[in-house]
Here is the input.
Amino acid sequence: WCAVCKNEFPTLHQIRNIPLIGVAYKDSRADVDLIIQEKGSPFKHLVLDQDGLIGIDFGVRGTPETILIDANGAVIARWQGAMGYKEIESINAMTEAR
Here is the structure.
């Protein structure tokens, strides 16, 4: 896991009202288990994308990248790079308004 991704975990723990699905992009189960053990999991579900095809399907250009998807599967927002508290508050405001 890149340092930026690791440092983002405490911020992700601050997202409310929506389930997070993490995609471990081109990672091994062992590496995923280590980071989750170290940082705790903010994710309701975590999916391995060892070959990168999920990332390609969503147009991921780099990691970390966060994509907000509504209940109908439509992408309603996306952020490239580490999420900060400003971005988390934006997500929380969007989800609370729904």
